[in-house]
Amino acid sequence: MRNVVPLVIAFVAGVTMMLALFVPVLQPLQERASVWFIILAAIAFLIGGTNLLLHHARKIAQQEAGWGFSAVTLVSFFITVFVGLAKWGVPPSDAYPNHPWSGNYITEGAPLWWLYQYIIDPVTSTMFALLSFYVASAAYRAFRAKNTEAMILLGTAFIVLLGRCSAGTFLTSWVPESLEALTFPGATAVIMAVFTTAGQRAIMIGISLGVAAISLRIILGLDRSYLGADE
After folding, report:
1. Which helix (H) or strand (E) covers residue 230, if one does?
2. Judging by beta carbons within 10 Å of its beta carbon (0-12, 13-18, 19+), is residue 19 exposed, middle or buried?
3. Residues 223, 15: contact at Cβ < 8 Å?
4. What is the mean pLDDT of residues 5-31?
5. pTM score, whole prediction
6. Cβ pair 85, 73 in contact under 8 A
7. What is the mean pLDDT of the chain?
8. Residue 106: pLDDT band by 50, 70, 90 thresholds?
């Protein structure tokens, strides 16, 4: 019985969301389902935050390897949650001129804006900057010209890399403007506009078909992975 109820809810919700796109009468039900989705997402955030808290608190209590990073994570977590819940705004707002920090809490100058601007944004940029070195290392190993496909991939990557930097522009500066497509920047523009766009569209079509197939499997009860690993 405990498995039948989730299957029925998934079936009814999925069918309602699909039919609401074609039957205007069901659109209010679709909007109601969207509200419930937001509520469930909020509950999932609470569960995820609790899980993060317990996981890192256990690492700190047991002095496991890397527990210092867990401590930094928890301190950052509590500060961000406190500032977010307090909703301190910029001082002051037009509606409450005599109340300090009564302005919008996400505008420039607010504490939450300060956290994003000077902590989260730089840390994110640093992470992606480090990620670029891993990408370069993986590309070096993947772009070895072992066969025809690898040679094409290596040549395309070489053209795009030169087309994105000033060296490529300098090396092909002697090419006439009428033959701009033969320069590294021009060839890069053609590759990005034609071949890359075509590949991205093919990937998106494949993803859409995969999402549709998985959704139908869940609605019809063929895929029950969301019920648990043992189901």
Report:
1. none
2. middle
3. no
4. 85
5. 0.59
6. no
7. 84
8. confident
